[in-house]
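Record minuted for everyone:
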Amino acid sequence: MSKVNNKKKVMIVDDAGFTRAMLKNIINDTKYAEVVGEAKNGNEAINLYKKLKPDMVTMDLIMPEMGGLEAIKNIMKIDKKAFIIVVSAIGQQELILEATKIGAKDFIRKPFKKEQVMEIIERHIMATS
C-alpha cells in the first residue's frame, strides 16, 4: 500500500455529503490514514480510483447514476487487489453479501459510531502494512 505522509490513502464514496464529512473526520483522526478523495456516485468513484490509486475505499451501496455494487465490479476489474469496505444501512444484508462476493473486504453499518469506523479502518491498515 502506498502512503501519503506515511499514512494510507483512503477514498470515500457516498452520495450523502454528511456521511462523507463524518467519515473524513473520523479517518483523518486516525494515525494511519488520510482521505485523499471523495466521490458522490459510482461513476465518479471509478474515475477517481484510476487517478488516485487509493489504498482503501469506503463504498456506499445505494447511490444515484451508478450504485456501489456496479462500482465495486468496475474497480475490481481495474485493480484486483483493490481494498473496499462497504458502508451500508441496516436492512441491506443481501447487498452487503453480494458486495463481499465481488470483492469487498468488510463492511461498516450505518448509522456508525466513530470508534467502530476507527477500529475497522485501523485493523485493516495494520493487517496490510
Observations:
- The helical segments are 17-28, 42-52, 68-78, 93-101, 114-128.
- The longest strand covers residues 7-13.
- The first helix runs from residue 17 to 28.
- The two ends are 7 Å apart (CA to CA).
